Amino acid sequence: MGQVVSAFYSWFNTDKEYKVLLIGLDNAGKTTTLYQLHLGQAIETQPTIGSNVETVKHKNVHFEVWDLGGQATLRPSWVTYFKATDALVLVVDSTDRARIGQVKDELWRVVGSEDLKGAFVLVFANKQDLEDCMSPADISSSLKLHDIKDHDWHIQACSAKEGTGLVEGFDWMVQRVKNRASK
């Protein structure tokens, strides 16, 4: 009986904070995503130099979310944040067809890291509210997501500015975290 109560308590109350890296190219919407999740509203942002970090609570699970600058000169420094990461969130600008190949290259460089072994991968297909955006299926194909075999992954259509799709993406992450904790 005590095990049942303990399992029930741990399901709804967790002291563990899960580390999440929020990555993507510059102007993809990473900081807007972070503050939409943290504050529940879009804020005016500037390009991130370095990182922003906030605690996001979603369905009683605490995530320490690191928003990493996406400029080309900053991307090599992402590796310094990889240790002890539970989930990777890649924010993709769905209107930026010219740089989707760069997004794919960065994703595959990152998921190949030994330090990220076992991390979940959530891809936010951002800016779905804009005309002429790529669909999540197009982005999935361009990034070759189906070739990722060493990570659980999910792609979620969203608009960080409007806040749509973000909750569903984090619902998926919470489910993965809880499944892992119950094993």
TrEMBL record:
<keyword id="KW-0519">Myristate</keyword>
<dbReference type="GO" id="GO:0003924">
    <property type="term" value="F:GTPase activity"/>
</dbReference>
<dbReference type="GO" id="GO:0046872">
    <property type="term" value="F:metal ion binding"/>
</dbReference>
<keyword id="KW-0547">Nucleotide-binding</keyword>
<feature type="binding site">
    <location>
        <position position="70"/>
    </location>
    <ligand>
        <name>GTP</name>
    </ligand>
</feature>
<feature type="binding site">
    <location>
        <begin position="24"/>
        <end position="31"/>
    </location>
    <ligand>
        <name>GTP</name>
    </ligand>
</feature>
<dbReference type="Pfam" id="PF00025">
    <property type="entry name" value="Arf"/>
</dbReference>
<feature type="binding site">
    <location>
        <position position="31"/>
    </location>
    <ligand>
        <name>Mg(2+)</name>
    </ligand>
</feature>
<keyword id="KW-0460">Magnesium</keyword>
<feature type="binding site">
    <location>
        <begin position="126"/>
        <end position="129"/>
    </location>
    <ligand>
        <name>GTP</name>
    </ligand>
</feature>
<protein>
    <submittedName>
        <fullName>Small ARF-related GTPase</fullName>
    </submittedName>
</protein>
<keyword id="KW-0449">Lipoprotein</keyword>
<keyword id="KW-0342">GTP-binding</keyword>
<dbReference type="InterPro" id="IPR027417">
    <property type="entry name" value="P-loop_NTPase"/>
</dbReference>
<dbReference type="InterPro" id="IPR006689">
    <property type="entry name" value="Small_GTPase_ARF/SAR"/>
</dbReference>
<dbReference type="InterPro" id="IPR024156">
    <property type="entry name" value="Small_GTPase_ARF"/>
</dbReference>
<dbReference type="InterPro" id="IPR005225">
    <property type="entry name" value="Small_GTP-bd"/>
</dbReference>
<dbReference type="GO" id="GO:0005525">
    <property type="term" value="F:GTP binding"/>
</dbReference>
<dbReference type="GO" id="GO:0016192">
    <property type="term" value="P:vesicle-mediated transport"/>
</dbReference>
<feature type="binding site">
    <location>
        <position position="48"/>
    </location>
    <ligand>
        <name>Mg(2+)</name>
    </ligand>
</feature>
<comment type="similarity">
    <text>Belongs to the small GTPase superfamily. Arf family.</text>
</comment>
<keyword id="KW-0931">ER-Golgi transport</keyword>
<keyword id="KW-0479">Metal-binding</keyword>
<keyword id="KW-0813">Transport</keyword>
